[in-house]
Structure prediction request, 312 residues.
Amino acid sequence: MKELIEIIAKALVEHPEQVEVREICGKHTSVFELRTAKEDLGKVIGKEGRNAHAIRTILNAVSTKNRKRSVLEIVE
Amino acid sequence: MVESREFEGKTVEEAIDKACRELNLKREQLQIDVITSGSSGIFGIVGTRKARIRVSPKEMLPDDQVKLAKEVLENILNTFDVPVVVEGSVKNDQIYLDIISNGSGLFIGRRGQTLDALQYIVNKIVKKEISRCLPIVVDSENYRERRKKSLVDLAKQLGRKARKSSKPVASSPMNAHDRRIIHLTLKKEKGVRTKSKGEGAFRKVVVFPVRKGNSTRGGAQGSSSRKDPPQAGRDE
Prediction:
């Protein structure tokens, strides 16, 4: 799932090498922290948060399959 | 695009850089023809010639666009740990990507939300690569067609209800694509007119009955004013 976020984020930003995803595993819930270059933050969030929303929707689809919950945090 | 422009620079390289900056495109996206390659002359004084190039944005063939879009979607789906095949084709000036999987509806999600999210992201990524690209439609298990059918049925039902009760009837909130289908279906229908109401994700279609005598149909369709029409008052 970490890979999934990385692939999408890297395809959206201008500086893919600075994309970093950290997974914090919990019993039922995993938190994914996504970090990017400062000027790329807007690219992953998108207009009115649309990109972020779409990434979260896809992430939720994968996690339901794995019977888990996932939270995507975009860290400044 | 037949738009081509000429650029100058001391060297061909410099001219290309300039073109990239001004057109805001990457070098790979440009069709570059060198008109004259510059020369620095003798000692840089006598006979200096500037390099001139002609550039035009490269047009990508639809088949290549399909290939690229398919690749992007496959890359995303391969992280799902589910056997999946993507079939790409061009249909009615759209790139149609069909996800073939085990039929669990995993990629569709509730009311197609996963499908819409994938479609949105793939469009975003591909548009970033090639600025001019056909719209991409992501589908699985013929969901789009099925959804359209049920929306047409829903539209007709709403129309009947509005006419019978002589009161405006509102649909549940839906996205622009779904609303469009409702509008288009009821456009041909007599005795009703439609309008979208609400903001953002809560926008819905309201079907109004048209009273006999003042049947001013049309006009109501295109005007996208978001003000409440006077007849409204129900279904808030």
Summary: The first strand of chain B starts at residue 5 and ends at 9.
